[in-house]
Design a protein that fits this description.
Belongs to the enoyl-CoA hydratase/isomerase family. This protein has 157 residues and is an alpha+beta fold. It has 5 helices and 6 strands; from the N terminus they run ββααααββββα. Strands 1, 2, 3, 4, 5 and 6 form a 6-stranded antiparallel beta sheet that branches.
């Protein structure tokens, strides 16, 4: 699996993810309607012309999911037991149709699990950054990560 095991994370480690994604009107309309977020700022171009941004905004939950999704392949793909939670999420700049988002992950903290011998807890800070180098999403996530050493212990001799 391409994800990293618990032992491979260090506080201060930075991962600039290679995958980038240009977001589209279709992404926004589909995500907003599938999640029943009918806010006119996402769906109504005429309404949004008179907003402070002058155009529709990408749904922030879509942006949050995209940022976490982009980070997953190089951090937790196949090596996580699950997310334990999100501590804080901010959207300092809006995202518009046609913006291209890249992601940077910082490892904030790493600690042994108090209740499990096969895993540890890693705190990730994911930042979504647009093509203008503006941070558009800043979120802190905590994951329960498999220890590589526990895999070796479970293998028959």
């Amino acid at each position: 699996m391409p994800g990293l095991y618990f032992e491979e994370f260090e506080p201060g480690q930075i991962i600039d993810h290679e995958v980038r994604r240009t977001v589209t009107e279709t992404d926004n309309v589909l995500f907003s309607t599938m999640t029943l977020n009918m806010a006119p700022l996402h769906l109504d171009a005429e309404y949004s012309k008179d907003s402070i941004h002058g155009q529709r905004l990408m749904n922030s939950l879509f942006v949050h999911g995209l940022v976490c999704g982009i980070s997953m392949h190089e951090t937790t793909y196949g090596t996580t037991l699950g997310n334990l939670g999100f501590q804080e999420t901010k959207f300092p700049k809006p995202v518009f149709h046609g913006d291209t988002i890249r992601v940077r992950t910082e490892i904030v903290a790493v600690r042994e699990s108090k209740s499990r011998d096969d895993s540890g807890i890693v705190t990730f800070r994911h930042q979504g950054i647009n093509q203008r180098d503006e941070i558009v999403c800043d979120t802190t996530r905590v994951g329960l990560m498999i220890k590589k050493s526990s895999l070796a212990e479970s293998q028959p001799a």
